[in-house]
Every structure is written in C-alpha cells, then in structure tokens.
Amino acid sequence: xxxxxxxxxxxxxxxxxxxxxxxxxxxxxxxxxxxxxxxxxxxxxxxxxxxxxxxxxxxxxxxxxxxxxxxxxxxxxxxxxxxxxxxxxxxxxxxxxxxxxxxxxxxxxxxxxxxxxxxxxxxxxxxxxxxxxxxxxxxxxxxxxxxxxxxxxxxxxxxxxxxxxxxxxxxxxxxxxxxxxxxxxxxxxxxxxxxxxxxxxxxxxxxxxxxxxxxxxxxxxxxxxxxxxxxxxxxxxxxxxxxxxxxxxxxxxxxxxxxxxxxxxxxxxxxxxxxxxxxxxxxxxxxxxxxxxxxxxxxxxxxxxxxxxxxxxxxxxxxxxxxxxxxxxxxxxxxxxxxxxxxxxxxxxxxxxxxxxxxxxxxxxxxxxxxxxxxxxxxxxxxxxxxxxxxxxxxxxxxxxxxxxxxxxxxxxxxxxxxxxxxxxxxxxxxxxxxxxxxxxxxxxxxxxxxxxxxxxxxxxxxxxxxxxxxxxxxxxxxxxxxxxxxxxxxxxxxxxxxxxxxxxxxxxxxxxxxxxxxxxxxxxxxxxxxxxxxxxxxxxxxxxxxxxxxxxxxxxxxxxxxxxxxxxxxxxxxxxxxxxxxxxxxxxxxxxxxxxxxxxxxxxxxxxxxxxxxxxxxxxxxxxxxxxxxxxxxxxxxxxxxxxxxxx
Length: 649
Fold this sequence. Notes:
Layout: E1 6-11, E2 15-18, E3 29-31, E4 37-38, E5 41-49, H1 55-66, E6 74-78, H2 87-96, E7 101-106, H3 114-122, E8 142-145, H4 153-164, E9 173-181, H5 187-207, E10 215-222, H6 235-242, E11 247-252, H7 259-268, E12 274-275, H8 288-300, E13 307-311, E14 314-318, H9 327-340, H10 343-346, E15 355-359, H11 364-374, E16 381-383, E17 400-405, E18 411-416, H12 425-434, H13 439-458, E19 465-471, E20 474-477, E21 480-485, H14 495-498, E22 504-511, E23 516-519, E24 532-537, E25 543-546, E26 560-563, E27 566-570, E28 579-580, H15 581-584, E29 592-600, E30 605-611, E31 617-619, E32 622-624, E33 629-630, E34 636-640, E35 644-647
Parallel strand pairs: 5-6, 5-7, 7-8, 9-10, 9-11, 11-12, 15-16, 30-32
Antiparallel strand pairs: 1-19, 2-3, 4-5, 13-14, 15-17, 17-18, 18-19, 20-25, 21-24, 22-23, 22-24, 26-35, 27-34, 28-33, 29-30, 29-34, 31-32
Helix pairs in contact: 4-5, 4-8, 5-13, 9-11, 9-13, 12-13
C-alpha cells in the first residue's frame, strides 16, 4: 500500500468568473476549465473602452484587463482613436481563437453614456445607427453585452479608498464625485446612478472604514447650462455650495487618468479650496476592484456550475437554482463545489452516504444547502461552531467547513479567505440583531453583506478560499475484488475487528495444502502476516481500513509461513518500504519459479509476472525477480516447486 498521508495546503483557485472546472461538476461563469467552453459554446470576453491618443491612457486599460482572473480568451476593443485595436479587430481575434459566444463588458462609467448606443450598434445588438460612419462587426458569434459601472458597490469601494487617502478632518469634510455627465437628455440616468454611488461610498467610509465623513455628494463636468435646474449639478457649483460649510475632497470618477482628470477638472475648480488626489490615484484604474468588477459582470451572463454526487447508483445533479440564494446558502454551495473538485480525495465523484460535512456556521441557510447535497442524511451533518457563537454573534471563523470521505477518513477543510470579509460587517450584524443599529448602520450592513454575497457567488475560487486536504493512512479496499495482506502480527487481528468499518461481501484465503478456499469468520477468524486474502468490496467506491485497525502487536516475532507445492497466496512483511522479489524471497530462492501480482481491482488484472532466475524486463509485464517489486499490503501468487518456509522481515 502506498503511504497516503500528506497535507496539501493551497490558497485557491479555480474559478468563477469564471471558470468551468470540469470537475464532474459543471462550473459557473466564475468557473471554467482550460477549454473555455460552456456546454457547446466557447466563451470569449470583449472589454470595450473609449480609447485615447494617449498611450498611457490605453496602457492603463490593458493592465487592468491583464489583471483579471478569467479563464476565457479576452480582448480589448477601443471605440475610437486606437488603430488595430477596434471593436471589429477584437471580435476577429476572439473568433480566431474559436470563440462562439462573446460577453462584451463596457468599461464606461454610466450606462447612460451616449457611447453605449454606439457600442450596441457596432456589435450588432441594435439595428439603428445613432450616428453616421459606424460600421457593424461581421460575425456569426453570439454577442451579449453587460451594463456599465454605474453604481456598482465594487466601484463605490474604489471611491471610498481614494477618499480615505485624503481625509484629515472627516467630520468637517465632504467628498464630491466628479463625473463626466452629459448635455443631452440622459442626465437623469446619470443623476440616479451617481446619487446611489455616492450613498454607497458614504456607507463604506463611515461604517466599514471607520471614517465619519460629513457627506458624499456628486457633480458633473457636462450639464445643459440652459436648464437652470440642472446647473446646480455642475461640478464647480457643487464645490462652491459645499465649501460654504465643509472642506471639499474631489474624487474624479473616470476609467483612466487623462485630460479630464489632470486638466479639465482642475481648470473648472481654479481658485477654489479643495483636496485632490495625486497623479496615479485620479481615476478608477489602477485598482483591483476594476478587475473584480469585470469578472463579476462576465460571470452574471454565464451558466452557473452544478454539483454532481451519486445517490446509490444514480448520478444526481444539483443546481444552484434549486437552493436558497442567501449569503449562507451561497457559501455552503461554493464551498461544496470547491471541496468536491479534489478528485484525488473522492476518487472521482463523491457518493451520498460516504460524505460527512462539519460546518462551523449554525445558520439555517448553511444547513438547508448542506443537507440537500447530502440527500437529507442528517447523521452526516454536524455543526461545530467556535465558542460564543449563536444567532446574534457570528464571526469570520464561522465560515469554515470540513468535508470528510467516511470510507477513507480523508478530509478537505475549506475556509473563506479573510480578504472576502468587509471590515466591520459582523459588528454591524450583531448590532442589527440586538436591535441597537441605526437605520444607516442597517443600510451599511445590508450593503456590505450584498458585496460579500456577490464575491462569493461570482468570484474566482482561488480568491475566495483557503483549502487544506488531509489524506489518511490506511489500507484501501477498492470496489470489487481486492488481493491484500497485513505486514505483521496485528494488535487485534480478528477479521471482525480489522474490517469493522468496511461493507464487504466475503473474505477468502486459498489453502494450498488442502486445495480449498477458506472463508473469513467461518474457517478462520484472524488475519495472519505473510498470508494474502481476497476481499470483495460490496460498494461502488473505495473504502479504507483505518491505520488504527492495522496497529502491530508489540512485542512480536517476525512472521514465518510454510508453503506447499503449487500456487500459494502470500503477503509482504514490510509496512513501509518496497523491495524486489529477489531480495524479499531469498529465504526460499530455489523453491519457486514464478510470482504474480499485484492485483488491480479497477482492471481485474495482475500487474506483473516475475520469473525466478531471470533479470530485467523479459517481455511486456514479464520480468525477472530483480525487477519485480513487492509492496506493503499487497497480495501475491507464488508458484512453489517444493515444500519450503518463507521468512518475513
């Protein structure tokens, strides 16, 4: 038996924005395999940016896209001003990579930008050109387009981070978002998303980052100045109004630094008193949340992974749509996806009845999802929460789950990474549960919870989890027939004790002297070293005799066995190391001609035939005994030519 004890720690990955890890689990958009295929479709991603004559501006976009964690082909298409990287160029490049479905993500601040209509027309999503001179792409690929950044909470977090760098006297300072805006009819849409974005940034600053900012407002560079009502939203007017009672902190909300951030805004606010970011922090890029946002937008458009698990002989497929979509349900589902992706533990697809789950989180949402996966086998689900946990008090350490293969004792511990949790989220939750939270604190908790849920739903698994696997020592009993042995006299060698945890049909030993098969528990009651036994595993998957059942007797004399002319079933007497048959059988060197084994249950065949007196490889699986390896816990047939005694080590 090979030593199966090892600890593997890895801070994960695999997916969801994904990625389809063809695990026997079909994955979500945040989850994909290297084929980048979703069903019969081959997915590709098109990031659409405005473009600029400034190479610095364009390189910022390229860097942000390179930093995304996507397993799909991804190309950038600039709307204008960049040759050879236009939208048609990008679509052609994706099709050259075999892409049949394109998810287009507009790297634009507002879905109300006039450019959005242009992009939709160029990609063939609308038939009416918003202006002359636009040429549609020539493609047979399906194209779907996501929304722009708008008021996404990941973008609000970037704004909060930029503002936090400038805050000095928070209670007397007001953050003002400076946005492009429009002189057309779409300013109302800009207003709605900008107001929501400002509110989210304020909640994050005040209740997650602990910065009690006086307020967060917004203003536009472009407004219809002929409309007196709209001029109040013009950026210089907003700053002037705020400055009467508070110090203004201006945060430009643009994809990349350029003319507007470095020239236009400072010129509009000339002679005003305000704080402004240093170069390098005057736009959304660079910030890791831009890549996270792209990943989420792609993931939302693609199919979500399913879990596969056997229920007896039936393969059951579990869809995320079958389950409650609360934060706890998402965490339970994604952690199960992650755990079941380790095929070396489950030997393929896990089986209900052979899986137990220990959760450190006591919520109903976790329990409902885990029990659904387990087929409502309540005995296989345990809650083991940290001390002090109850309905009111939940901490990040509660998001820890252990998945155990019962037959082997192998386990996988899946913990949600610290970076997934937002600061102060659970302090706010506790206040809400105790009834002491203010209305704004409740709103802040709701926002932070939704941000975490979006990460958990769509984020790449390597960014979500810390995972360790523990593979136990033991004797594997594969499905079907197994030819095994024990290396020494056992502390408790009874058949009933050794195989207490194994579901098997029969244990047999071939007695060469009588020419009869003997049955365990009937003709013999104990396993002896240097004898080999056949055991039939009645289940459709491997089981394991734990190392506790294989403890050697101490003290004990090395084993010996009398062998008779003909085929004898023998074992191997070293518990750790493998040796050649020539060395192992030297005590009976002139008394045998052939040795055969090990037996492979999966193929129902023997690995090698060793020929005594020969060396090296003879032909195919026929080898000399110097090349025939004998290993712990395996059984072997040996053809004895005269009565002899085999001495163990």
